[in-house]
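Ex. 9. Protein: Chitinase.
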Amino acid sequence: MFRRVIGLFTALAAVVAAFVLLPAATASAAACATPWSSSSVYVGGQTASYNGHNWSAKWWTQNEKPGSTQVWADQGTCGGGGTEEPNPTGFVVSEAQFNQMFPNRNSFYTYSGLTAALSAYPGFANTGSDTVKKQEAAAFLANVSHETGGLVHIVEQNTANYPHYCDTTQSYGCPAGQAAYYGRGPIQLSWNFNYKAAGDALGIDLLGNPWQVEQNASVAWKTGLWYWNTQNGPGTMTPHNAMVNGAGFGETIRSINGSLECNGGNPAQVQSRISKYQAFVQILGTTPGSNLSC
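Predicted structure tokens for Chitinase:
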């Protein structure tokens, strides 16, 4: 009898152990709804994403940020987190987060094109702490969003400017034609000398064939990363160095547009960039840091 009791307990222990060792069921995070907009009107039951969560409006609301439990019901995290596998690309921005940042983007600007371009500058969004990596990615994408209307525009919209971007004093001239070097891509690469410099750095003939920037998503993203990681522009440092060395987001604006926006040049444009950056760091679950303005 005693042996049978011991045997029974042993069997029960084995069953319990089997249940303990079973892997827990995993649940993928929900897809993010369209990002909340202060200019949109929401009625009861409509959803919006904000700060990495989906929210459901309890009743009619406008310009009341999700987070107020009196107006919004938190539907949980979205676009990442939970037990989701780490991003296989190694990039600190997941595809779901990218889609949340750019809900109305042109289909030309693919996430795969961006991640394919990362190999050209492996230090980008991959230097320093996790916070710094996310801040740099958010800073780049915020400036890109501002330059392209939310990744909508592939080429410069003011066609009257096109003939102006040929510097004939350069020894190599403008072999693709005087009006061929207009703004293209996520940071709107323009001028024949910039196409040559970017092409030389990337090993692509952009001087002879600048149209590649509007035809190949990876090439377009590479030109944006080229500027971000290697060019001071009208500033005193590259945008990459500004973010990884603690100079702050404001210095990235200076490196892109200098006095045209900074030092009182166009405060509204500066604030537009800052607001987008603040929204993007929230999506990535980090803080914006200091020195946001220029």
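Check your answer against this statement. The two ends are 84 Å apart (CA to CA).
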